[in-house]
Amino acid sequence: MAAMATKKVLVVDDEESIREIYRRELQTRGYQVSSASDGEEGLLKAGEDAPDIVLLDIMLPKMSGIDVLKALKENQLTKNIPVLLLTNLGEETIIKEGFELGADGYLLKVSYTPAQVVDEVSKFLSGESS
Q: Range of 22's domain?
């Protein structure tokens, strides 16, 4: 578990309660966590903090999650950071677009508890994700 203590996760979600729940759950498991409340801030923090993975809400103010994803993947500094999209929508076209732009996965917030989201992050970072 000590190796995970150095793993950094960036949570980008406009709902403070969601950010806080994920932060607590991730920190409990030994991750360093930073967060952003909108797309612009998320993009800035991804460049500054060099996270090991980004949990990115699709519906964000200022800049949509899809626009943030596109910008992350076009930037030399951030293009290799894995991105898991978070959504309340089962919107097939948005999810498909996310994958086409380089998303590494997506999670429906309503289908996963915070602990299960962190399980998925852990699996992904350990190379066990499918």
A: 2-123
DSSP states along 70-81: HHHHHSTTTTTS
The number of domains in the chain is: 1
CATH assignment of the domain containing 80: 3.40.50.2300
The reported pLDDT for the residue numbered 6 is 81
* Per-residue pLDDT tens over the stretch 67-102: 999 999 999 999 999 999 998 876 788 889 999 999
Residue 19: inside a domain: yes
How many residues are there in the chain?
130
> CB neighbours of 125 closer than 8 A, spacing ≥ 6?
4, 7, 52, 53, 82
Confidence of residue 5 (pLDDT cuts 50, 70, 90): very low
In a domain, 18, yes or no: yes
